[in-house]
Amino acid sequence: MTTHLQFDQVRLPPECDALRREVRAFLANEIAKGTFDPHRPGHGDSHDRDFSKRIGAKGWIGMTWPKKYGGHERSFLERYIVTEEFRVANAPVRSHFVADRQSGPVLLKYAPEHIKMNILPRICRGELCFVIGMSEPGSGSDLFAVKTKATKVDKGWRIDGTKIWTSNAQIADYMIALFRTSAPTNQNRRHGLTQFLVDMKTRGIKVSPIYQMSGQHDFNEVVFEQAFVPDDHVLGEIDGAWKQATSELAYERSGPERFLETFYLMLELIRAVGPEPDTRSAEGLGRLVAQLHTLRRMSVSVAGMLQAGKEPVVEAAIVKDLGTIWEQNLPNRVRELTAFVPPEIANRVTLEEQLAFATTIAPKLTIQGGTTEILRGIIARGLGLR
Amino acid sequence: MMAGRDQVAQPLQIRKICPGAVHRCDSLPMALLGLTMGSLRWPKGQTRPGNEKSTVVKGESDHIVAELAARIFADLADPQTVNRVHDGAWKASFWQALSDAGLTLAWVPEKLGGADASLAEGFALLGVAGRFAIAAPLAETLLAGWLLTCAELEAPAGTMTVAPCRPFDRIIFGKDATLSGRAFSIPFAAEAQNLAVMAESETGIVVALVSARDCTIGEGQNLAGDPSNIVRFERVKPLRYARAPSGFDHAALMIMGSVSRSLQTAGALESILSLTVSYANERVAFDRPIGKFQAVQQNLARLAGQTAAALAVSASAADTIAQSDNLDGAAFLEAASAKIRCAEAATEGAGIAHQVFGAIGFTKEHVLHRFTLRMLGWRDEFGSESYWAAELGRRVAKRGAEEFWPMVAAR
Q1: Which CATH class is domain A15-128?
Q2: Shortest CB distance from A379 goes to which of B270, B301, B393?
Q3: For residues A207 and A175, is the Cβ–Cβ distance under 8 A?
Q4: What is the DSSP letter of B13?
Q5: Which residues of A fall within a CB distance of 8 Å from B312?
Q6: Measured between CB atoms, does A292 come within 8 Å of chain B?
C-alpha cells in the first residue's frame, strides 16, 4: 500500500523572476495593442496564429525541448511561469498550447528523427496547431473502447471511423490520434491501440462543428473515410500505445491551467467587494485565496518533482481533482459573495458578463482531460484500493 | 480588529530577536550528535541514523529529528496503547523521554536552557506529533519556549503552555509588574507547570514566564478530552519577564501557533488516511472488501485530496517561516492559508473517515477519534479558519485586484 503522499518544497528559482517580468511586459504590450482583452475571457478570438508566432519568437513555445528541434532547453519551472502568466492574462494561446503541452513531448519521444526535425521547430515558432484525437462516440473516459480502425495497406495505414469532441479540429494542422490496429486480447483489453500523427489536410478527413451550450465552438466531429497515413507517422509501438499514454499524463494533469481557468473571477470579486469589505465578503474572499494558494503550491511542487525526475502520478491526479472542482465552483462562490454589493459598483457589467460566461463553461472543467471519477480511480489505485 | 490587522502588517525581525530560531539545518549536527549540553539526544542504547557520517547535509537534520521523535512516540505514546489505558500514567515517562532527548525545548537556544534546534526541525517534530495524535503539551511547550526566546528569557524545564491562544484575548501587564486578565481555551493549562504569556503594557508588548500555580485555572476540555482551560490572571507576579522587541506582537504568536496546528492537522490526516485505507481493504461487506466499491474508493480519494492539500500548504508555511527573517506579508499569507485550508481539510477529512469506518469508528474503544477529534479541536485554536479568512480577505481586498496575482505568484 502506498498511502505516502509527497509534496516536495519547491519554489520557483530566482532566475525565473526576470522571465516573469519579461512575460508580463510582453502581455501588457499585446493588451495595449489590442490583441486581446484580459477582462473578456469568453469573447474575441481565443486562438490567434499571429499571436502564437510572436510568442514562439520570444522562445516561449517548446521551452523545455532540445535546441536541435527548435526548443530552448529551459526548465519545466520556467515553462510553468510562462503558462501561468498567459493563463491569468486570458491570452489566446489555444492555437499552440496543446502542441506545447502534450503533442510535442509525444513526438519528441516517439516520432522518427526526420519527422521531429520537420515538425518540432515549426511548433516552436508558433506555426502549428495540434489536436488530440482520443474520444469517440462510444469511447470517452474508457479509451480502450476506441474503434476507429487503422488497417495496414501498402506504405501506410488506412483510417476509418469517427473522433468526437475534438477541440480546435477546425483550425488544426495535425492530430495525435489513437486508432485500433488489432483487436484486444482476452488477457489484455488495453492491447491493440496505436498512436499516429495525422496531417489534418489528408484526403478523407471531414471536420464538422459541434456547438457548445456556452455558445462557443471548440468541439468538432472528425470523420475518417479511407484516410491514408504513411508508415513513418506511426508513433511508438504498434498495438502498444497504452504503455505510452500514462507517463505524460502527470504533466497534463498538474499544470496551472487546471485551476486557473476561471481565475478572472477572483479579480472581479476583489474589485466588487472593494478595499473595505464586510466580514462576510472578507471571509469568503479569504477562503478562496487560501484554497488557490494551496492549489498553486501543490501544482508547483508537482512541477518541481517532475523536473527532478520523480513520478508523482497520484499527486498530479489530486491536483487536477481539487483544482478543477475549485475552478468549477468559483463562479457560484463569487456569485454568492457579490450578492449584496451595491448595484453601482464600477465593474458591475464585467462581473456579470464573466459570471455568465464562467457559469456556462464550468461543467466542462471536471470532464476535459480526465473526469473527476477517472482521476479518483487513479488516486484510489495509488492508495492500494484496486 | 483594525489594530490587529495593522500590527500584522509590520515586519517582524525574528532573525534578530530569536537567536534560537535562526539556525539553518547545516549548523545543527553538533547539537544533534549530542556533543553539547542541552542539545537533542538520541535515546540511550539506540544509534542515531546516519551517525557514521561526520556531517549532516542540509535538510537531513529535519528527518533525523522527525525520526527521533517518531521512535519515542511509538515506544511511549502509541495511540492504540494510550487509547486502551484510562489514566494518564503513561505521560510521566513519555515526557521524561522527550525532555531527555531535548525535544521539549527544541526552539530554545542552549544559553537559554534549550536544545538549539532550527525552526524547520521543530516544525518537522510537530508533523510527527500530529501523526501520533500526541495528547501532551509538546506543541505548547515548543511554542512557549519560542515565545520566551523571542524576549531572551530563559526557559524552565517541564511542561509549559502559551497564552493567549485566541486572537482577541488580551492580558495586561500593569505598572506594578503584575499580569491581569483572562485567556480562554488555553490548551493543557491544567497540566502545564508554567505558562509563557504575551501581555500588553502601556509601553509595548511584554513576554512573561508565569507559574501555573499562581493563576486561576478553570475546568475544561477540548473535543478530544485534553485540558483546555480558561486562565485568569489576578495581579499575577511573573517568575521573570522582559520587553518584546519592537514589532513583535500577538499576530506573531498567532502565526506560529497556526502553523504548528496546521502541521499537526496534516500529520493527523496522514494517519487517518492510512488507517482508513487499511480498514477499507480489510472490512468485508457484500462479500468483498468495502474498498472495492467505487463509492468508497471515490470517498477515499477525496480524503487523500484533503490530506494532500493539508500536507502541502502546512509544509509550505513552515518552510516560509523557517527560511525568512520576519513574519511579514509572505509569512502571513502562508500561515493564514495553512490554518484555513488545514481546518477545512480536517472538517471534510474527519467526515469521510468516520463514514468509511461506520459504527466502529464512533466508539471510544476505536483509535480513530484520537485523531479526528483532536484535529477538529485544533481548528479553533490560534484563530479559526473563519478568523484567518476574514483577516486574509481584508488584506487582499485592501491591496486591490492588481496586486493579487503578483502576491500569489510570488509564493
Answers
A1: mainly alpha
A2: B301
A3: no
A4: B
A5: 7, 294, 297-298, 301
A6: yes
B209, B241 Cβ separation under 8 angstroms: yes
- How far is residue A326's CA from residue A323's CA, in Å, rounded to a whole number? 5
ipTM score of complex = 0.95
Residues B217-242 have a mean pLDDT of 97
Strand, coil or helix: what is B187? Answer: strand
Every domain of chain A and the residues it spans: 15-128, 132-240, 255-382
Q: Cβ–Cβ contacts within 10 Å for residue A188, how many?
A: 11
Listed in order, strand segments (DSSP E) in chain A are 130-133, 149-153, 156-164, 174-180, 193-199, 205-209, 220-230, 234-235
User: Which of chain B's residues have a Cβ under 8 Å away from the Cβ of A291?
Assistant: 340-341, 344
Three-state SS at A383: coil
Domain spanning A255-382, CATH class: mainly alpha
Q: How far is B284 from chain A (nearest CA, A)?
A: 13
Q: What is the DSSP string of A325-380?
A: HHHHHHHHHHHHHTTTS-TT-TTHHHHHHHHHHHHHHHHHHTTTTS-HHHHHHHHH
Domain formed by A132-240, architecture: Beta Barrel (2.40)
* Mean pLDDT, rounded, of chain B: 88
Cell matching residue B296: 468508497
Q: What is the pLDDT of residues A9-28, one digit of tens each?
A: 999 988 899 999 999 999 99
By residue count, chain A amounts to 386
What is the chain A residue with the closest CA to B408?
A293
Domains of chain B (ranges, CATH numbers): 250-409 (1.20.140.10)
Give the pLDDT confidence of A105-139 residue by residue, as tens digits: 999 999 999 999 999 999 999 999 999 999 999 88
Going by C-alpha positions, the residue among B174, B221, B152 that lies closest to residue B373 is B221
Contact A163, A135 (CB under 8 A): yes
